[in-house]
Amino acid sequence: MKHVLRALGLLALMMVLCVGCDMSMTELALSRSAVQTEELSSRAAKQNGPTQFTAVVNLYQDYTSVVTEHKGDSDHYKTVEETLYSFPYESFGGVIESDWDLLDGKFVIMNNVTNYNLDQETAAISGSNHSVIQIVDEQMQVVATLQANGTIDGSLLGAEIAMNWVLKDAPGKKIHANGKVGGIFTWAVFDYETMGLSYILPNGTFTLTGSYK
What is the DSSP letter of 99? Predict the structure, then answer.
């Protein structure tokens, strides 16, 4: 009888151990499955998330397009019309260089409204800048339109333009994009012979950074 009871006890113990082993294996399998699912979800999120990009372009001012209002007897001015281009002109302009194929190799037409103060003695300039930036291809077809708003600060010898931008339209495409645009724009250089400013074709190199999805 004792042998029977001992055998039954051993059998019961083995059954408990087997059940525990099965449960551990099941829990391990579920844990691995959860980790794999999380990794796949993370990869999918990265693949479907916004793509970061950078674009660089040189722009120059079409001075014949500039219409400026002088606000009273002060240093306050407002350009109600001003156009910048990146189409090649002498040593200025050029195509956009970017890791985003929508922009790479394209040109820029940038229309500005600038509300600023200009000190005629020191050439210091500061104010706000509002831009509509059109990206066009070689056939002058608009591939994207950006809206940008920000500030301008410095002098005619070099003023920093810093703006936030958002993609307003990309004909035929559904794209969400935004970011920042910045650069140094220059209207003059210092002439050491005359000890004064010598005006040049206003130009600057701008960097566009942001993301699209």
Answer: S
Between the CA atoms of 173, 175, 180 and 182, what dihedral angle is there, to the nearest 10 degrees? -10
98, two tokens: 């970017």
Angle at 51 between CA 50 and CA 57, to 5 degrees: 130
The whole model's pTM is what? 0.76
Structure tokens at 80: 């109600």
- What's residue 37's pLDDT? 52
CATH of 51-212, one of 1.10.1660, 2.40.350, 3.20.16, 1.10.10: 2.40.350
**Separation between Cα atoms, residue 156 and residue 1, nearest integer Å:** 108
Smallest CA-to-CA distance from 179 within 41, 47, 52, 24 is with 52
Return mean pLDDT, the chain. Answer: 86
